[in-house]
Design a protein that fits this description.
With about 550 residues, the protein is α+β, with helices and mostly antiparallel strands. The protein folds into three domains: about 180 residues, Arp2/3 complex 21 kDa subunit ARPC3 (Orthogonal Bundle), CATH 1.10.1760; about 70 residues; about 150 residues, 2-Layer Sandwich (Heat Shock Protein 90). The protein has 17 helices and seven strands. The strands form two sheets. The protein has a five-stranded mixed beta sheet. A two-stranded antiparallel sheet has the order 1-3. A hairpin with a 4-residue loop joins strand 4 and strand 5. The longest helix has about 80 residues. It is elongated, with a radius of gyration of 36 Å.
Length: about 550
């Protein structure tokens, strides 16, 4: 009997429970984050309520907007509603504002709306955890913070002035203090909060904290703040000393370490100015110096992160490009054993068909097994190269390297009418990874052939391989051609990655070749001459000197 359709439709999906559970977890996390925003803003407002102008929230350091912007970036505009409630709560619990309830609500709406709009712009423009991937993003964020804080300061102070909370004579002073306090608070505090909210950001901070030198430059930061500010307000001019540990943190740990150091420096500054009883104007000056110091540190940290990331990407690109070159060499190496295995397999079929003696059949099978092992060994070397760039050194005759490197170009040379000249060499041996050295020589030969192919008809067309002693225990292998050689405008970056004088070239061949040569204790360079000359210097085997 068929199952009633209504019952079937009411049966729970096997994934419905997981979906509902995930949704509830996501909602609980969102409500938790909203609660953290509310409590965090109130606590930040309480902690920063120092040197307040006329009891208002106009202080030299105001980190409250930082937590608001960070959560708005992470959660979206709904977080601005929580920020609105938090501002009202802070005004009610921490200070007794000389305003009416409507004015308090209006001011809170201005602040929450303004920072909600600024956070929404940041949410669209930047990564949500403020892990700046480029210095241009950091500069754009700094400009947004400065301009946003300026607009909010003008709106806030103007509202208080229009409602007679402040006199117009106090407008400029209040505006500057509020602008500096908010800008400094956001610049120093927001990156840390944004990183703490996000899982990836927490991983970056954890990595920075685990560095062995992190406690050291943290301690130096605190000491520098104490010895420059703890001596008294007159010593603020020596505050640049704090720049040293800040830059050290940026150079060693990137942006994450700089964020942690900047936070530590800010906490130390607040502690010192409170315990030493600094005047408000001096605190304002210190905060402005701190903002400049932190911004420079952030820029250095972002540049370091960017440099490391691009370096890693470049190394990966070079490794993959080298793997492609190695694969071509390995394909050539695999061709011979595979061809032999095919021939041995056909021979086995013939022997079986002819009823040949078992010893003959066994001999052919042994040879096939030997070739299969050789093939497996080649494949293993390719796998090792992909994993870690491992090499296998062996004693190789130089003449054999010449022959193996030139062999793939025989057909092309014949079609192009180019003569390949291989000078005889003595019985020299080198300790190298044969496949890698073949990659180098094939790169050089291919470049030489391309150079000669561009010559007009009637010009000499040749490529030459030769070797000569280059001092005790050294051999110099030269690849020459009748072409014009590298153009002068390309010589400076000839071996730089992604630098190519050819429209279709990637500019990786010579960079890879030089890396391989240096890994073997040698050197590769282009020599100035009337024709193309590239030279490869390699150490000779101890028993491989010229006869």
């Amino acid at each position: 009997m068929a199952r009633p359709r209504g019952i079937a439709q009411n049966l729970p999906s096997p994934h419905l429970k997981d979906i509902v559970s995930t949704s509830l977890t996501s909602k609980r996390l969102r409500w938790t984050q909203m609660a953290v925003l509310f409590v965090g803003y109130v606590l930040f407002d309480w902690a920063s309520f120092i040197h307040a102008l006329h009891g208002l929230n106009i202080t030299p350091w105001s980190p409250g907007p930082a937590i608001g912007l960070a959560f708005i970036m992470h959660l979206g505009l709904p977080a601005s509603a929580v920020l609105f409630v938090a501002i009202i709560a802070a005004d009610s619990l921490i200070r007794d504002l000389p305003t009416t309830v409507p004015v308090t609500l209006f001011v809170a709406a201005i602040l929450a709306g303004g920072y909600g709009l600024l956070g929404a712009i940041m949410r669209r423009r930047f990564d949500r955890n403020l892990m700046f991937t480029h210095h241009r993003e950091l500069l754009a964020w700094i400009m947004l913070v400065i301009v946003g804080a300026l607009v909010m300061s003008a709106a806030f102070v103007s509202t208080l002035t229009l409602t007679n909370v402040l006199d117009w004579e106090q407008w400029t002073d209040a505006f500057i203090r509020y602008w500096v306090g908010d800008a400094v608070g956001v610049v120093i505090t927001m990156p840390l909060i944004a990183m703490l909210i996000d899982e990836r950001g927490r991983a970056f901070l954890g990595s920075a904290l685990r560095r062995w030198e992190a406690p050291l430059y943290g301690a130096i930061t605190v000491a520098a703040v104490w010895f420059t500010l703890g001596l008294g307000p007159a010593e603020v001019r020596y505050f640049y000393v704090v720049f040293v540990p800040m830059v050290w943190a940026a150079l060693r740990g990137g942006l994450a370490a700089t964020v942690l150091t900047a936070t530590l420096a800010q906490l130390a500054i607040i502690f010192v100015v409170q315990t030493r009883g600094f005047e408000t104007i001096t605190v304002l000056e210190v905060q402005m110096l701190t903002a400049v110091l932190v911004l420079v540190g952030f820029l250095v940290g972002v540049f370091i992160d960017e440099h490391r990331r691009l370096g890693a990407e470049l190394r990966e690109s070079l490794r993959l490009a080298a793997a492609g070159e190695m694969a071509a060499a390995l394909a050539h190496e695999l061709n011979q054993p595979l061809t032999a295995m095919t021939a041995y397999g056909a021979a086995c079929e013939d022997l079986v068909r002819q009823g040949a003696p078992s010893d003959r059949l066994r001999d052919v099978v042994k040879r096939m097994v030997a070739e299969s092992r050789r093939t497996a060994d080649i494949v293993t070397r390719l796998r090792d190269f992909f994993r870690a760039g491992d090499t296998r050194l062996a004693r190789v005759r130089v003449s054999e390297l010449f022959e193996a490197a030139a062999e793939p170009f025989a057909a092309r040379l014949g079609q192009s009418g180019i003569a390949l000249l291989v000078d005889p060499v003595d019985d020299w041996h080198v300790i190298v990874d044969r496949l890698q050295l073949e990659v180098v020589l094939r790169n050089l030969i291919a470049n030489a052939i391309e150079s000669v192919e561009e010559l007009p008809a009637g010009k000499p067309r040749w490529v030459r391989l030769r070797g000569e002693p280059a001092g005790p225990g050294r051999i110099c292998i030269a690849v020459e051609d009748s072409g014009p050689g590298p153009q002068p405008e390309h010589e400076a970056g000839l071996f730089e990655p992604f630098h190519s004088g050819k429209a279709s070239g990637l500019g990786l061949g010579l960079a890879i070749s030089r890396s391989i040569a240096e890994a073997h204790g040698g050197r590769l360079w282009a020599e100035e001459a009337e024709h193309g000359v590239f030279k490869l210097l390699l150490p000779l085997d101890e028993g491989g000197h010229a006869a």
